TrEMBL record:
Residues 22-479 form the Aldehyde dehydrogenase domain. PROSITE patterns: ALDEHYDE_DEHYDR_CYS (PS00070), ALDEHYDE_DEHYDR_GLU (PS00687). This is 2-hydroxymuconic semialdehyde dehydrogenase. It comes from Phaeodactylibacter xiamenensis. Belongs to the aldehyde dehydrogenase family. InterPro entries: Ald_DH/histidinol_DH, Ald_DH_C, Ald_DH_CS_CYS, Ald_DH_CS_GLU, Ald_DH_N, Aldehyde_DH_dom.
Length: 484
């Protein structure tokens, strides 16, 4: 198992270049240098992948669930045995700290395979009895070939979060990782070969979104698309797939509120708020980017947040003491910087951070920013309404529960929200009215893979996780049997 200079597609069980023979440069954000190349795939590669997946479908969909279970567990074992190789590749590709990729990203990729391998053994269906006359039972059958398209922020974590349930439910898959972070998907291809996954069951096509990704969405052979990424891309995918009546699961952006009441456990809230603000450089759709603290503790909170933020170490991904690594790309760093400039125009005061960081001469061309805290922005300004997806939080005080709810719900997004209070009744009251697919109370990013995961409003449609994912990747068919 090794990261290689020339990444290959994984089609019909073999590692192959793009049909065109063309490669694109893969940069590491840690130095801004090219360190490998990935295939510039297009419709011809996707067509080969879909054909291979179609041929593999009868064998895979009819295989005993325990056969799928064994193979998926074997893939998880191989990832676990090679944790360091995977975690290093993830850190170099995405710029995130190795301390994160080795404890969060890669362990979660293993868990995704294990969780859904086991779920394949447990998945059942409903029946509905019409007393004295008939019984209805529901067959849940795999869809066929499905497309899985994932982003760069949690590369293998989110890639496997889609692939594993699709395979567990008996589908065959054509998947594309982000062009910014292709390396761990390539390592996964090697793991599938080593595990003995039958040819064509999983096919991984590398390349650009508008070319290779678009070809997966447009191909008449893909019956469903599971996508995580930006809201604009999600809208475009929906426009393409809807007239073809494909099933769609879209997990999109967020502008998530943290609401901090005076009665919270202040110390625990501070620890978790720092995490929810700047984990992975704020490049997680669940990060809390708008923080509202109740007026009596607002100033104490603000001063403590600024102090702790200034203490965070921005450094190269492989250094042991790095808290925040590099942002994923130059273009993304410039996007984040443009929002920092906009925030000032919109009346915000940058209390700390927002400047370029240079963790040493080897890294001077990498994409490093000091994490920023902004105060004084109105709720309806662009900085408070649009997803920045970087190490930037905006803070403001509030007085009442009603005001906090209005602020929290006042954006087009509805992915997650975090509440800090020791008053259980208030927590339930607020949770009921928050427009978010996930509400965390006195915690953040505490994940149980059985729960529904996804957002409302412009944060997407559908839910991933547990039974929801298995339902998405199957077609329910009701059979009604009259017996009297
Ligand atoms: N999980 C999330 O919520 C994420 C949100 N974003 C947001 O989106 C913004 C833009 O980031 P991008 O890297 O451009 O994300 P993106 O949404 O364009 O990329 C995500 C995936 O979609 C693919 N893709 C792009 N265009 C496609 C198309 N026409 N058809 C099929 N697949 C396509 C990409 O190749 C990648 O694999 C970020 O600044 C951030 O605000 C980005 C990544 C993850
Ligand atoms: O924990 C999860 O399942 C998902 C986490 C994060 C994202 O989906 C994201 O950042 O896109």
């Amino acid at each position: 198992m090794s990261a290689e200079k020339y990444i290959k597609n994984y089609i019909n069980g073999a590692l192959v270049p793009a049909v065109s023979g063309d490669y694109l440069e893969n940069l590491t954000p840690s130095t801004g240098e090219v360190y490998s190349y990935f295939p510039d795939s297009g419709p011809a590669d996707v067509d080969q992948a879909v054909k291979a997946a179609q041929e593999a479908f009868p064998g895979w969909s009819n295989a005993e669930p325990r056969t799928r279970f064994r193979l998926m567990m074997r893939i998880a074992d191989i990832i676990e045995q090679n944790l360091e190789v995977y975690a290093k590749a993830e850190a170099l590709d995405s710029g995130k700290p190795f301390t994160m990729s080795s404890t969060v990203d890669i362990p979660r990729a293993q868990s995704n395979f294990r969780f859904f391998a086991t779920a394949a053994l447990q998945f059942g269906s409903e029946s509905h009895h019409m007393a004295g006359s008939a019984i209805n039972y529901t067959l849940r059958q795999p869809l066929g070939v499905v497309g899985c398209i994932s982003p760069w922020n949690l590369p293998l974590y989110l890639f496997t979060w889609k692939i594993a349930p699709a395979l567990a439910a008996g589908n065959t898959v054509v998947a594309k990782p982000s062009e910014l972070t292709p390396m761990t998907a390539f390592l996964l291809s090697q793991a599938c070969i080593e595990a003995g996954l039958p040819a064509g069951v999983l096919n991984i096509v590398h390349g650009l979104g508008p070319k290779a990704g678009q070809a997966i969405v447009e191909h008449p052979g893909t019956k469903a698309i599971s996508f995580t990424g930006g809201t604009k891309t999600g809208q475009h995918i929906a426009r393409t797939a809807a007239p073809m009546f494909k099933k769609l699961s879209l997990e999109l952006g967020g502008k998530n509120p943290n609401i901090i009441f005076t009665d919270c456990d202040f110390d625990e809230m501070m620890v978790q708020t720092l995490r929810s603000s700047f984990s992975n450089n704020g490049q997680i759709c669940l990060c809390g980017s708008r923080i509202y603290a109740q007026r009596p503790i607002y100033e104490r909170f603000r001063d403590e947040l600024v102090k702790r933020t200034q203490f965070l170490k921005v450094g190269p991904p492989l250094a042991k003491d790095t808290d925040l690594g590099a942002l994923v790309s130059k273009a993304h760093m410039e996007k984040v910087q443009s929002y920092l400039s906009l925030a000032e125009v919109e009346g915000g005061k940058i209390l700390c951070g927002g400047t370029v960081a240079n963790p040493g001469s080897t890294y001077e061309n990498g994409y490093y920013l000091r994490p920023a805290v902004i105060e004084g922005l109105p709720i309806d300004c662009r900085t408070n309404q649009e997803e920045i997806f970087g190490p930037v939080v905006s803070i403001a005080p509030f007085d009442t529960e009603a005001e906090a709810l209005e602020l929290a719900n006042g954006t087009p997004y509805g992915l997650s929200a975090t509440l800090w209070t020791q008053d259980v009744s208030r927590a339930h009251r607020m949770a009921e009215h928050l427009q978010a697919g996930i509400v965390w109370v006195n915690c953040w990013m505490l994940r149980d893979l059985r729960t529904p995961f996804g957002g409302m409003k412009q944060s997407g449609i559908g839910r991933e996780g547990g039974q929801e994912a298995l339902r998405f990747f199957t077609e329910p068919k009701n059979v009604c049997v009259k017996y009297r």
